[in-house]
Amino acid sequence: MKIITQPLGPGQANCYVLVKDHHALLIDPGDDYPQLEDILKQEDAKLDAIVLTHGHFDHIAGLDKLLKRFDVDVYMNPKEFDFLYDLDLNGSKYFYQQIASHAKPLPLHEGEQNIGAFKVFAKTLPGHTIGSTILRIGNDVFTGDVLFQGSVGRVDLPSGSEKDMIEPIHYLKTLDPDLRVYPGHGPSTSIGQEMRWNPYFRY
User: Fold this and answer.
1) What span, in angstroms and rounded, lies between the C-alpha atoms of 171 and 6?
2) pLDDT tens track for 101-134
3) How many angstroms separate the Cα of 176 from the Cα of each of 78, 143, 160, 173, 201?
4) Residue 86's closest CA among 76, 99, 67, 103?
């Protein structure tokens, strides 16, 4: 599987294009992505779906623009469906923006499921938001804002919880250290690297 990383929007949230066997999956469109058509053409791939790790504005801001060009389904944790149109829940009002989406998402189910040509294992790990979900696809884990290189997601926005963030840390520490981690912001890492260097993993 080929993974193309593109930071988008003022918050430079990582948007990921996954390509396999002429199919593509898009994760977290934080802004419009005009290069996507060229990428799909170069890879001779068809976009199957869009998946959201959570509903914060910097991960959904490009959603409606992309849906005007691509007739695909959107998947996200149903606990956060209302984040798409609620400026308080999606955090945009706290950054003096008005970002909302008219998408009608399908539920991202807990556990393994097929989304297009991709087998996706989803695990809800609240703390950053109530429905933050990590996605394991093969030997790669897309953590949204649950885990970054050397840190974890903030917990001071609506539905965030410092207490709840303990569970994701415990869960992530049980994963195979060789798993590659693709976070919502910043560079990629691995579970093993975070076990060694992430201060939050020491507790």
Assistant:
1) 27
2) 999 999 999 999 999 999 999 999 999 999 999 9
3) 28, 14, 27, 8, 14
4) 99
